[in-house]
Design brief:
globular; Neuraminidase; 5-stranded antiparallel sheet; single chain; 2% helix
């Protein structure tokens, strides 16, 4: 069988793909959550009795959640459906961008033409990893006017940018796997010789900082911005890597292989960092909470292949999760990076 990230992530869920028509508003429901404590220090980060809220459902593959602190809302993507959603406590989930990526008449050769990873930049604009445009874009949230920041490396189109993080000086780091392209690595549109990880500097220069990963996916920075974290969504090498930004080579930080099982669908995908440097990364069975040294402390068991997560709410102590066809949240005892 030809490997695709979404097929592998979702296959063990046993439910197939959900309806492409997501519910615009589903009242918050309570679902029992098994927080698996692997190290007693995790109790400072999350309560073993924490409950999972199911906020909305019915998506094909939900991704890229980001909290807008100014507007007190969450944005997230349904990548195959080429739609971005906005969720608020009062209104639930409503369509925010459609198309989120390229228009329908410009998607020939793309398996997933929509937006994927999202981030709020320091200037308040929305950063968009746009599969269909093969670009990282910046968008004025009020006017929805977009600017393409980068779409090519070494004179050739990027594959399909997947996730992005911004450093305090405005430098962007982003991953560029081939998930958006039909046939992925075998796509005739693929022009890059690697599925790279890139640094886009404020002066407009673009540098490939990692070229050895098979399927780079999520990306994040440590609180002191000296370390770059990158996940790899490869069932044969389900890894979280870290790389010092002083020029060191990437090294293995966490191997998810021992946790892979039929009843624990998913791979390392998106991730979020708390203010003390702990890593909340998706993986088999849900979201792992890791120490900065990669030691697994706990696992939030969602029961679904979980694509991504982010901290949100005014106090930064809620973790929002996009888990296959569902948007979820859980309260934490720690606070997301950037809330202090």
């Amino acid at each position: 069988m030809t490997y695709t990230r979404r097929l592998f992530l979702a296959s063990a869920a046993g439910t197939g793909l959900a309806s492409a028509c997501a519910m615009p508003h589903l009242p918050s429901l309570q679902k029992s959550l098994d927080v698996e404590i692997l190290d007693k220090s995790a109790r400072d980060l999350i309560s073993p009795g924490a409950r999972l809220d199911v906020l909305a459902s019915g998506y094909t593959w939900s991704e890229g959640p980001v909290w807008d602190r100014k507007r007190r809302c969450l944005y997230f993507s349904d990548v195959p459906e080429n739609t971005c959603w906005k969720w608020t406590e009062d209104e639930g989930a409503t369509v925010f961008l459609r198309p989120s990526g390229a228009p329908a008449d410009e998607t020939n050769g793309f398996r997933e033409p929509g937006a994927n990873g999202l981030a709020i930049s320091h200037d308040g604009r929305l950063l968009i990893c746009n599969h269909g445009r093969r670009a990282v874009q910046s968008m004025d949230i009020d006017t929805k006017q977009r600017t393409t920041l980068v779409s090519a490396y070494d004179g050739k189109p990027l594959n399909s940018p997947n996730d992005v993080v911004e450093a305090s000086d405005g430098t962007l780091f982003f991953t560029d796997p081939p998930y958006g392209l039909e046939g992925m690595n075998d796509s005739p549109l693929k022009a890059q010789d690697a599925n790279g990880v890139y640094r886009f500097s404020p002066d407009g220069s673009l540098t490939r900082v990692i070229s050895t990963m098979t399927f780079p996916n999520g990306v994040a920075l440590s609180p002191d911005e000296t370390t770059l974290y990158v996940t790899q969504s490869d069932p044969d090498a389900a890894h979280l890597l870290r790389m010092g930004l002083g020029g060191t080579e990437p090294e293995l930080l966490f191997d998810a292989a021992p946790y892979m099982a039929e009843d624990a669908p998913g791979l390392p995908d998106g991730l979020a960092i708390d203010e003390t440097g702990h890593i909340f990364t998706t993986g088999p069975g849900g979201v792992f909470i890791l120490s900065a040294d990669g030691i697994p402390l706990a696992r939030i068991k969602t029961g679904k292949a979980t694509a991504n997560c982010c901290f949100g709410d005014p106090d930064g102590r809620t973790l929002y999760l996009t888990a296959h066809d569902t948007l979820m949240r859980i309260r934490t005892r720690t606070r997301g990076l950037g809330w202090s």
